[in-house]
Amino acid sequence: MGALEASVDRASLFEFALRMGDNTLILGHRVSEWCGHSPVLEEDIALANTALDLIGQTQMWLGLGGEIEGKGRTADSLAYLRDAAAFRNLLLVERPNGDFGQTLMRQFLFDAWHLDMLKALERSADSRVAEIAAKAGREVAYHLERSSDLVIRLGDGTDESHRRMQAALDDLWPYTGEMFLADAVDAAMAEAGIAPDPASLKPHWQAVIGEVMGEATLTVPDSGYSHKGGKRGVHTEHLGYILADLQFLQRAYPGAKW
Amino acid sequence: MSSQWPLWEIFIRGQHGLNHRHVGSLHAPDAEMAIRNARDVYTRRNEGVSIWVVKSADITASSPSDKGPLFEPSNSKVYRHPTFFDIPEEVGHM
User: Fold this and answer.
1) How far is C-alpha A223 from the geometric centre of its chain's CA atoms?
2) Alpha-carbon Rg of chain B, whole angstroms?
3) What percent of the residues of chain A are helix, what percent strand, and what percent coil, each to the nearest 5?
4) Fewest beta carbons less than 10 Å away: which of A40, A81, A156, B77?
5) B28: nearest CB among A39, A42, A49
6) What is the count of structural domains for chain B?
7) pLDDT of residue B1 exceeding 50
């Protein structure tokens, strides 16, 4: 550990790594649920690629988390052996897949935030964080290109697709605010120059959302209400079902390898 | 649903290849999405540096029944192959 790493308390940095890794783990799992069920083969493969990218990023973030914690936990043990209350992902990423439009809308709202976050993290004072961000950023740039393109196509598509995309946006909107809310961990990260103040990402995110929704002929809800809790481990009932699916094998057969 | 989307032929130029090679086909509503789909379907293992897409319907193909007239005449013209030259040792492998 260098001097920079030592200047921020280890518990906050661990918490931060979990937040990044749990977002990608839970969203990656959600997206992987489409595998074999997508409307067309090409989309099926594209979604599986996105899911795999996110799981790969999870390995890096949770791997870093385990290293920071220094208690011998690995990316695998953090992913498979924590209970719901120990997860730190945003509520947005645990939302059910719904129809294809809801899945794409969730992806777009997250991608737009994710890319800006990773760009900011590339300038992190912690070189390990900057390195992961640089690698993940290239993948996420493509995720955003793809999800924004599909949101525009479906929003500005048929009456049916427009209706579904607007319903998805209205449904997910109250879950977007949590991305920009800061707590003591975020303040410590910003103070140490490791991560940006979450609120600082909001103006550009809003501009991206506004531009894409404009092209998609969708109306951005003006409600400022936001559900929150995921970042401190207070989750919706959906996370428990995700973990039951995700963790079953390691829980039932501890240490199983294949 | 996919039956309403046109079929596209996908050509990819590999890391070290000079030419785009035909790798397969897929469905997409337009050229832009055909490229994205090709990226996801055919370049998952770092296969390429460039993608071309062509609507399958835009390809004019020779007819299989013309195979004889088109290709067989060249069978009997061995002199079109440069097999009657002795290559000097020092030239090495050509």
Assistant:
1) 22
2) 20
3) 70, 0, 30
4) B77
5) A42
6) 1
7) no
B6 CA: distance to closest CA in chain A (Å):
13
Q: What is the pLDDT of residues A81-109, one digit of tens each?
A: 999 999 999 999 999 999 999 999 999 99
CA distance A16 to chain B (A): 30
Check: complex ipTM more than 0.90? no
**Domain presence at residue A3:** no
Whether B89 maps to a domain, the answer reads no
Q: Is residue B79 part of a domain?
A: no
Residue B29 lies in a domain: yes
pTM given for the model: 0.88
Task: For residue B91, tell me if it sits in a domain.
Answer: no
Q: Specify the CATH number for the domain of residue A209.
A: 1.20.1260.10
8 Å CB contact between A104 and A93: no
Residue of A nearest to B2 (CA): A40
In Å, the largest CA–CA distance within chain B is 62
Question: How many independent structural domains does chain A possess?
Answer: 1
Tokens linked to A107: 């992806």
Is the pLDDT reported for residue A1 higher than 50? no
What is the DSSP secondary structure assignment for residue A231, as one 8-state letter?
G
